[in-house]
Amino acid sequence: MTPSANPAPSPVAPDATAPGDVHVVRVVQFSDTHFRAAPGARSFTAHEPEDGLAAVLADAARAVEEAAAVVVTGDLADLGEPAAYERLGEALDPLPAPVYCLPGNHDRQDPLQACLPRPNVHLEPAVRIENWLLLLLDTNADGRESTADGGHRDREDRVHAASQPNLTPVEAARARAILTAARAEHVFLWLHQPPLPETAPAAQGDSELALLVRDFPAIRAIGAGHLHGDLSGTFEGRPVYVCPSSFMSIDTELRRLDGPGYRTYLLHPDGRVETEVRTVPGPLTDAMRATPLPAFLADLLSGRATPEELAALDDAQFEARYGEPRPMARARSGRTGRTGGEAAGGTRKSTCRRRSGRCMVIAMIELRTLTSDDWPLFRELRLAALAEAPYAFGSRLADWQGEGDREERWRSRLEIPGALDLVALVDGEPAAMATGVPADGHAELISMWVGPKARGRGAGARLIGEIERWAVERGFPVLRLAVMPHNPHAIALYERCGFTDTGEPGDLLPDGVSRELVLAKPLPAAAPSL
Questions:
Q1: CATH code, domain carrying 438
Q2: Which of 43, 222, 375, 381 could crosslink 410 through cysteines, CB 3.0-4.6 Å?
Q3: Measured between alpha carbons, how far is residue 252 from residues 249, 285, 464, 489 in Å?
């Protein structure tokens, strides 16, 4: 794959890209996947949400291979169930491009953050690619409510309350801080609900979102979902592009249901944006186009009803008016007899644990590749790791202090031939580290440490994912690591990232009895260069 086809994402830092050195950035957008905890809870479609996503992924396979990033713009789950995010994460993780997701009004914050992230599926709010910054916003402020401890939690009516885009003060401040610090030449804004005047009148004028776009002229365009169709317009003078749903879409011009779709983008070095929508041909689309348009959608498309009017109807009023259950009510009734993450016909429950009701502001995680000139930063983190978690390493803190604490030794550690040394910065502060080294017929993950301030925020999975991509690009068939048997948190992280115990005896530990565990993960073959 050539660099111009797929430039690599990099940490968000002030733009220092020289003119002429930048390339076109290719992005693929999926939206409104509407996954559920288990199959069988359809609304007015004959296919499952995962069937639609599978069709989209097959049709977009070449575009995804060439993309620098895939962005999924909300309504990831239909009912916010933990197992739905697990299923979606498993479907997206194998993609050859990194996947960045943001929440929609159907999503639930705690299970989303706890269950969706994977080594290749991220919730980071910003990523720099070439001279572009992709900034992902949570525009569901109207579906959240403040808590006594100063945080936020989802409202019970989040689906209807957050039908238009809005930013909490915390989200607006974070976006401004990112834009100010990044100083990117061009910015592409991603959100769920499109700020079109016809569908989001509350977003016009001096809303938080409008002020943000107005204050940062580097914002070139906005990509959104929510409306399940191929739509476009403008907001504060910027083009707004709406992506069809990977589940089912609506052809607003022909006033009919449509099949799964997606968008592709070319982001040019001079700030121009080219985009194209594709509806996946085949039996799913044929079946959807042959399906009568539900009466409530016909009312919406004809202007006989507004989204606010329909939201004001309770389920009984909706059914009395249209002679059929509200789609969300139908989905809920289809789950009778199952709870949480139980699969149809089984009893498996989601292993994800819901986090507290307080809104957890997603951490800004940046990865930095180190050279030998970065030895002071590596030294700082390595000594912190050996002091904070001596049980996790074969090396001792004393080995790297006193006579062992020499510049040439630290530089030598960062000059292992062919190695990749990474540091993760959380909200701008070094907080985690990992190294990938080539070995005999495989790659090894060593020196992994996630500091206390970075734990539970996705830094570990992000580091592992980057080491995996490095290993795949170099043709290694497997990534291996050794972990202390009495380090359950690290073992759990590695298992979530797909590593399994090889059963091989590891190095003997100082107690003379126990040994390190040797874990491994098979890696896919590298994509051929195009």
A1: 3.40.630.30
A2: 375
A3: 9, 15, 43, 50
pTM of this structure: 0.62
Q: Which CA distances in Å does 74 have to 30, 174, 210?
A: 9, 19, 20
pLDDT at position 295 is 80
The dihedral over CA atoms of 225, 230, 234, 238, expressed in degrees to the nearest 10, equals 70
Side by side, which strands form the sheet with 132-136?
A: 126-129, 132-136, 186-190, 219-224, 238-242, 231-235
Phi and psi at residue 374, to the nearest 5°: -95, 20
Mean pLDDT in residue range 424-450: 92
Pairing mode, strands 152-154 and 186-190: unpaired
pLDDT at 210 over 90: yes
Does the residue 128 lie in any domain? yes
Structural domain total, the chain: 2
pLDDT tens digit sequence for 22-57: 689 999 999 999 999 888 755 667 789 999 999 999
Q: Token pair of 507, please?
A: 């190095």
Radius of gyration of the chain measured on its C-alpha atoms:
24
CB 56 within 8 A of CB 261: yes
Q: What is residue 525's three-state secondary structure?
A: coil
Domain that holds residue 283: 37-69+77-143+157-261+268-333
Work out whether strand 256-258 and strand 443-450 pair parallel, antiparallel, or are unpaired: unpaired
* CATH code of the domain covering residue 201: 3.60.21.10
Q: Distance between CA 361 and CA 310 in Å, rounded?
A: 32
Residue-wise pLDDT for 343-352, tens only, equals: 322 222 223 3
Do residue 200 and residue 326 come from a single domain? yes
- The DSSP H or E segment spanning 504 is strand 500-508
**Percent of residues, the chain, with pLDDT higher than 70:** 84
Angle at 121 between CA 364 and CA 38, to 5 degrees: 130
- Asked if 327 and 370 sit in the same domain, the reply is no
Number of CB atoms found within 10 A of residue 289's CB: 14
CB 65 within 8 A of CB 530: yes
Compute the distance between CA of residue 497 and CA of residue 119 in angstroms, rounded to an integer.
6
Span 8-23, mean pLDDT? 49
Q: Which two tokens stand for residue 141?
A: 């402020």
What whole-number distance in Å separates Cα of residue 451 and Cα of residue 431?
5
Q: Is the pLDDT of residue 240 over 60?
A: yes
431 in the same domain as 309: no
Q: Where are the beta strands (DSSP E) in 443-499?
A: 443-450, 478-483
Cα torsion 367, 372, 374, 376 to 10°: value is: 130
pLDDT score for 362? 38
Q: Tally the C-alpha atoms within 13 A of residue 279's C-alpha that lie toward its C-beta.
A: 19
Question: Considering the domain boundaries, does residue 349 fall inside one?
Answer: no
The answer to whether 251 touches 258, Cβ cutoff 8 Å, is yes
